[in-house]
Amino acid sequence: MLGICRGRRKFLAASLTLLCIPAITWIYLFAGSFEDGKPVSLSPLESQPHSPRYTASSQRERESLEVRMREVEEENRALRRQLSLAQGRAPGHRRGNHSRTYAMEEGTGDSENLRAGIVAGNSSECGQQPVVEKCETIHVAIVCAGYNASRDVVTLVKSVLFHRRNPLHFHLIADTIAEQILATLFRTWMVPAVRVDFYNADELKSEVSWIPNKHYSGIYGLMKLVLTKTLPANLERVIVLDTDITFATDIAELWAVFHKFKGQQVLGLVENQSDWYLGNLWKNHRPWPALGRGYNTGVILLLLDKLRKMKWEQMWRLTAERELMGMLSTSLADQDIFNAVIKQNPFLVYQLPCFWNVQLSDHTRSEQCYRDVSDLKVIHWNSPKKLRVKNKHVEFFRNLYLTFLEYDGNLLRRELFGCPSETDVNSENLQKQLSELDEDDLCYEFRRERFTVHRTHLYFLHYEYEPTSDNTDVTLVAQLSMDRLQMLEAICKHWEGPISLALYLSDAEAQQFLRYAQGSDVLMNRHNVGYHIVYKEGQFYPVNLLRNVAMKHISTPYMFLSDIDFLPMYGLYEYLRYHVWTKGHAPTNFAKWRTATTPYRVEWEADFEPYVVVRRGCPEYDRRFVGFGWNKVAHIMELDAQEYEFIVLPNAYMIHMPHAPSFDITKFRSNKQYRICLKTLKEEFQQDMSRRYGFAALKYLTAENNS
């Protein structure tokens, strides 16, 4: 043990010496320039300050020095990374192998030196650095409400997960819509070492509803003011983020800045990068009071424990009441009130370097706070124009954002090695089920697909539905992939009622779908269509999982189980609403149907797979059937076993829209093993039916043998 410790000390000493090279170099240059308080000649050329030779030579020397300094700084950053990794592997000085040191960026004490923050951030510090433990949990709070914000926050989360090396605990202040969407997303995402808690934003409305707000964020834009009351009392500190933030670095670096707070500093903020609070943007512009340019609240470090002791609630309320007597309303939501409080109490703020919140808003001056876009750490799209905002580096920022927007979220399910994860019952059950499968089974991949958890984003677009008073409404349920996207508009034109669609897409395809939908007048004029994205994973098309997702998220008492390539006749929606029956609709006697004028009953037959209308709450589709074959047949068999009656409706029909063969049907036709596995799954399903329904299920075996 003694030998290991000695070796480690030698490594650290050598590394720290190298880390100090930039500082020592500058000290040498500074010291070498003066003697007894007077400048000292560094070169004989300096005695000829006006000679061309002097000018050219000194220029080359300066350029050479600048190049060397950049090289040293790059070496410094690389060594810092190596040191950090070495500390992660070697025994730590406080908690064994659970410590890691992150380089700290110096905050600036005044706005005049704000632009120097980048240089200070990239320079080396030889003193003791604040520590973020390797397995220390970083807490992040986000206010999120509605369908669009729920979609936007995913890109923020991806950028954080991409860079992170620590466990994360997200505290989401969400309305009912956002909670439903994001709870499902995180549950199906199954990212290790990530915990998510929700806080009901609707219950907080009374806390801030008395404040008139002109900002487009509405009442939810004021809820960061009440985080000291909302978040758990034992939570001491939290990073608060807007949903339109993109990270370009590890969030642990920002978390480490808490160690820089001194005295009564309880708020970490970046200076506002526009002239808004200076009041000179237009004639008679009258902003809320602020200290200088004020501060932007898109990124906030909150010391919750100290804020509570300072009676933050009373502080901001009294300030808001006083200012509203003259201002009448806020223009920038919580940001106006935070700045008014800071104006009266400037000691509360620790000013962060501007690269922690580069604001791409209208009238922005963010270009003046950095020298190179590669130095930036957090991008804030705080303009209503979002990606269309004007900035000379906007293409770089846009590409960074689009990278995470279309990044495969499944790749972020990586373990944090060395950090124990909380016990997840769902994950444990999944691992147990997978371990029971035989990997040597030729149908292993088919069986495994049944247990695959697909990341799911419900209500990808805005959704509205008003229930009918007669309790007879019907939702069309279908599923599709990218190659059937062109059929959506025709379906929406033929079916004016509510629709629930499950779309099997990659992250990049989901964004293509979004652009397609937003460019379609037909789709944008329909708010009663629920689009649920099930993200691609594995080699099979999980057709029955998609159907189950779409079925589960309907709001009507009845559902019409269809496929995307079948076009309803005009008027079918209204026709089905007025033909109410107790159970369902099954295989059709077409000869009888052509002349029928009233509904008639039929019996189940082998291999029929009609499109049916059933009550909500009917049995789900069996997930063992993926790709092509028996996915609908098995469901109809299950309905029959549960004694559903099958009634055929006259004057109701659908038209099949021609399309190219799917990838799965091509595999079925060309791959013998595919057909063998499908046959095996059919037999196992029938055996399961016999176990569940006993003697009544014998007819399915008999019918299969006779077919």
From TrEMBL:
Composition bias type Polar residues, residue spans: 44-58
List the SUPFAM superfamilies hit by this protein, alphabetically. Answer: Nucleotide-diphospho-sugar transferases
InterPro entries the record matches: Glyco_trans_8 (IPR002495), Nucleotide-diphossugar_trans (IPR029044), Xyl/GlcA_transferase (IPR051292)
Compartment annotation: Golgi apparatus membrane
Stretch list, region Disordered: 42-64, 83-108
Any one GO CC term of this protein is: Golgi membrane
Q: Which GO terms describe its biological process?
A: protein O-linked glycosylation via mannose
Question: What sections of the protein cross the membrane?
Answer: 12-31
Keywords, comma-separated and alphabetical: Glycoprotein, Golgi apparatus, Membrane, Multifunctional enzyme, Signal-anchor, Transmembrane, Transmembrane helix
Give the primary localization class. Answer: Golgi
Query: Catalytic activity annotated for this protein?
Result: 3-O-{(1->[3)-alpha-D-Xyl-(1->3)-beta-D-GlcA-(1->](n)-4)-beta-D-Xyl-(1->4)-Rib-ol-P-Rib-ol-P-3-beta-D-GalNAc-(1->3)-beta-D-GlcNAc-(1->4)-O-6-P-alpha-D-Man}-L-Thr-[protein] + UDP-alpha-D-glucuronate = 3-O-{beta-D-GlcA-(1->[3)-alpha-D-Xyl-(1->3)-beta-D-GlcA-(1->](n)-4)-beta-D-Xyl-(1->4)-Rib-ol-P-Rib-ol-P-3-beta-D-GalNAc-(1->3)-beta-D-GlcNAc-(1->4)-O-6-P-alpha-D-Man}-L-Thr-[protein] + UDP + H(+); 3-O-[beta-D-GlcA-(1->3)-beta-D-Xyl-(1->4)-Rib-ol-P-Rib-ol-P-3-beta-D-GalNAc-(1->3)-beta-D-GlcNAc-(1->4)-(O-6-P-alpha-D-Man)]-Thr-[protein] + UDP-alpha-D-xylose = 3-O-[alpha-D-Xyl-(1->3)-beta-D-GlcA-(1->4)-beta-D-Xyl-(1->4)-Rib-ol-P-Rib-ol-P-3-beta-D-GalNAc-(1->3)-beta-D-GlcNAc-(1->4)-(O-6-P-alpha-D-Man)]-Thr-[protein] + UDP + H(+); 3-O-{beta-D-GlcA-(1->[3)-alpha-D-Xyl-(1->3)-beta-D-GlcA-(1->](n)-4)-beta-D-Xyl-(1->4)-Rib-ol-P-Rib-ol-P-3-beta-D-GalNAc-(1->3)-beta-D-GlcNAc-(1->4)-O-6-P-alpha-D-Man}-L-Thr-[protein] + UDP-alpha-D-xylose = 3-O-{(1->[3)-alpha-D-Xyl-(1->3)-beta-D-GlcA-(1->](n+1)-4)-beta-D-Xyl-(1->4)-Rib-ol-P-Rib-ol-P-3-beta-D-GalNAc-(1->3)-beta-D-GlcNAc-(1->4)-O-6-P-alpha-D-Man}-L-Thr-[protein] + UDP + H(+)
Q: Which GO terms describe its molecular function?
A: glucuronosyltransferase activity; xylosyltransferase activity
Q: How does it sit in the membrane?
A: Single-pass type II membrane protein
Family of this protein: In the C-terminal section; belongs to the glycosyltransferase 49 family.
Q: What PANTHER family is this protein classified in?
A: GLYCOSYLTRANSFERASE-RELATED, XYLOSYL- AND GLUCURONYLTRANSFERASE LARGE1
- What is the name of the protein in this document? Glycosyltransferase-like protein LARGE1-like isoform X2
> What organism is this sequence from?
Chrysochloris asiatica
Taxonomic lineage: Eukaryota, Metazoa, Chordata, Craniata, Vertebrata
